[in-house]
Amino acid sequence: AQSVTQLGSHVSVSEGALVLLRCNYSSSVPPYLFWYVQYPNQGLQLLLKYTTGATLVKGINGFEAEFKKSETSFHLTKPSAHMSDAAEYFCAVSDQNAGNNRKLIWGLGTSLAVNP
Amino acid sequence: DVKVTQSSRYLVKRTGEKVFLECVQDMDHENMFWYRQDPGLGLRLIYFSYDVKMKEKGDIPEGYSVSREKKERFSLILESASTNQTSMYLCASSLHDTPSGANVLTFGAGSRLTVL
Q1: How far apart (Å, rounded) are the C-alpha atoms in residues B68 and B53?
Q2: What is the pLDDT of residues B51-107, one digit of tens each?
Q3: Which string of DSSP letters, residue by residue, matches B53-77?
Q4: Percentage of chain B exceeding pLDDT 90
Q5: A102 to B92: CB separation less than 8 angstroms, yes or no
Q6: Residue A102 has pLDDT above 60, yes or no
């Protein structure tokens, strides 16, 4: 069965510092991988996704993530944190070979705090 | 620019009451989902629907039912609300023409339900 592990339920960084949010997955087949962000009092929105091709994917607001098959990881990074990045971040995976797959497997989320 | 609308942001109900949570999307999406979000537990799928009048159980369907009479509307029903159903409920929708597209979810802002 697929699973997603987000290391660190809470991460705190200083404004301007590197943001690194970790996500590891387990899957017996090639996965699709996603990062979603939830700002306070809002629903989730897609930050970026990996399907096929280039393993480094860029998303909105300066975020990017790299798919590393050998490490089964899809860590999210941003070179310089901004106060507006404070949010909850969710990693998710789905099964590429499941045809019209409609279900995502979600990590438990990482709450990012950005300190001035 | 609103795409997924949840009718109530905050509801307070009493134990045993019947509760309806309504969700409407204007993107002509085939798939619709209901999740509940609880601290430390991430997102858990309650039910989803991939077509009008179709529904499938998610991971935690007990105590819930759903209705999808029109493509744009997906309702979550708590037949007899209990205190352990106090939670944030998130509705989402997606296309199902491609596996990757099927997992690009558009979320509503959420409905926070408190059951006393």
Answers
A1: 5
A2: 999 999 999 999 999 999 999 999 999 999 999 999 999 999 988 766 566 578 999
A3: T--EE-S--TT-EEEEEETTEEEEE
A4: 80
A5: no
A6: no
**Considering CB atoms only, which of B45, B100, B110 is closest to A32?**
B100
Using the predicted structure, report yes or no on whether residue A105 has a pLDDT greater than 80.
Answer: yes
pLDDT attached to residue A29: 74
Please say if the pLDDT value at position A96 is more than 90.
no
Q: Which residue of A has its CA nearest to B5?
A: A43
Residues 6 or more apart from B43 whose CB is under 8 A from it?
A44, A90, A106, B35, B36, B37, B90
Burial class (CB in 10 A: 0-12, 13-18, 19+), B26: exposed
Pairing of strands A110-115, A10-14: parallel
Which member of A43, A101, A108 has the closest CB to residue B99? A101
- Would an 8 Å CB–CB cutoff place A18 in contact with chain B? no
Contact between A111 and A21 under an 8 Å Cβ cutoff? The reply is: no
